[in-house]
Amino acid sequence: MMQSDCDACLKLILPRSLEEPVVDFLLQHPAQAGAFIAYGVDGHGAPESILSTSEEVRGRAERIKVEILTREVQARQLVAELNLLLPGAPISYWITTIVEAGRFA
After folding, report:
1. Which InterPro entries does the entry mention (predicted)?
2. In the Cβ-directed half-sphere of 44, how many Cα atoms lie within 13 Å?
3. Choosing a second label site near 50 at 20 to 30 A (CA), which of 43, 78, 91, 104?
């Protein structure tokens, strides 16, 4: 999918322990997910999301953020399929509108 065809960005926030299954799922669905990025982030402000002793000591939760430029309908489909694959998983998401996307030539 060309970046110019994208009208939405799906953002997923998940525990590091779910990085492999989520990335594997996305790689198996290139028509919906296309190219995406995943990187480490720290979660703040939700004490119940701290999963390990080291996170408790640091006062923040280690998370992975995945960003996918896609079509809105495909973003919604990915969310539904991930929810079926990983029911009850501590994954947060949001879908935002893309005004413009492209590459510098």
Report:
1. DUF3240 (IPR021634), N-reg_PII/ATP_PRibTrfase_C (IPR015867)
2. 1
3. 78
Find where tokens 């994208």 sit.
Answer: 6
Look at the chain and report how many structural domains it folds into: 1
For the segment 17-64, what is each residue's pLDDT rounded down to a tens digit? 999 999 999 999 999 998 899 999 987 665 555 555 555 545 667 889
The answer to the question of residue 103 being in a domain is no
Cα gap 104→88, rounded to integer Å: 40
Q: Could you tell me which of 4, 13, 99, 6 has the C-alpha nearest to residue 62?
A: 13
Read out DSSP for the chain?
--GGG--EEEEEEEEGGGHHHHHHHHHT-HHHH-SEEEEEEEE-S-GGG--SHHHHHHTSEEEEEEEEEE-HHHHHHHHHHHHHHSTT---EEEEEE-S------
Domain interval for residue 42: 3-97
Structure tokens at 19: 């990085």
